[in-house]
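TASK: fixed-backbone design
INPUT:
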């Protein structure tokens, strides 16, 4: 990722950290916030050409966990 580029995911993550603290988790945030986070993660992993392959791989693991947490809340 270029040095001056910040994907929307980074800004949203910062918002969640400022609201819940650096140790927030997927069970602590609201369902709507979790759904929004999943969308930002998907965008970064699947559609953002400025996110590196290594970052996409790491974010993919976070996305999988977030999707599972969201699915549990929807059930």
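OUTPUT:
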């Amino acid at each position: 990722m270029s040095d001056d580029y910040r994907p929307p995911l980074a800004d949203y993550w910062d918002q969640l950290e400022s609201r819940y603290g650096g140790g927030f988790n997927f069970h602590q945030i609201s369902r709507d916030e979790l759904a929004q986070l999943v969308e930002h993660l998907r965008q970064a992993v699947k559609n953002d050409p400025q996110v590196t392959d290594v970052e996409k791989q790491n974010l993919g693991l976070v996305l999988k966990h977030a999707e599972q947490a969201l699915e549990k809340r929807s059930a």
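COMMENT: The chain has a mean pLDDT of 92.
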